[in-house]
Amino acid sequence: MFNLGLPELLVISVAALLVFGPKRLPELAKGLGKGIRDFKKALEGGDEKKQIEGNDAIDVSNSESQKASADESNPTQKS
C-alpha cells in the first residue's frame, strides 16, 4: 500500500522516538491499537445490528402473513 521498506521504517521509528520519547512511545502504540480494535468492533457491530433488525422485520411479516392465511382458510372462527 505505502511501499515502505526497512530503511523507511527505521527512519520513521527514530523520528517517533525523538519526538515522543522512549517512555511515551509504548503508550501511544497501545492507544493506537485499542482505537483500531474499537473501530473494527464498531463496524462489525453495526452490520450485526442491521442484520438482526432485518431478520426481525422478516419474521414479523412472515407471522402476519401466516396469521392472515390461517384466518382465510378457517372461515368458521370469524368474530
Describe the structure.
This protein has a domain at 22-48. The model has no long low-confidence stretch (mean pLDDT 76). It has helices at residues 6-20, 25-73. The chain is mostly helical. It has 2 helices and no strands.
Produce a short descriptive summary.
With 79 residues, the protein is mainly alpha-helical.
SSE run: HH
Percent of sequence in beta strands: under 5%
Give the assembly state of these chains: single chain
**Total number of helical segments?**
2
Structural class: mainly alpha
Q: Which ranges are low-confidence, i.e. pLDDT below 50, for 5 or more consecutive residues?
A: none
Largest sheet: none
Q: What is the CA–CA distance across the termini?
A: 69 Å
What is the percent of helical residues? Answer: over 70%
Shape: elongated
Number of strands: 0
Report mean pLDDT, rounded to a whole number.
Answer: 76
Structural Rg: 28 Å
Structural descriptors:
79 residues; mainly alpha; elongated
Topology:
Blueprint lengths: L5 H15 L4 H49 L6
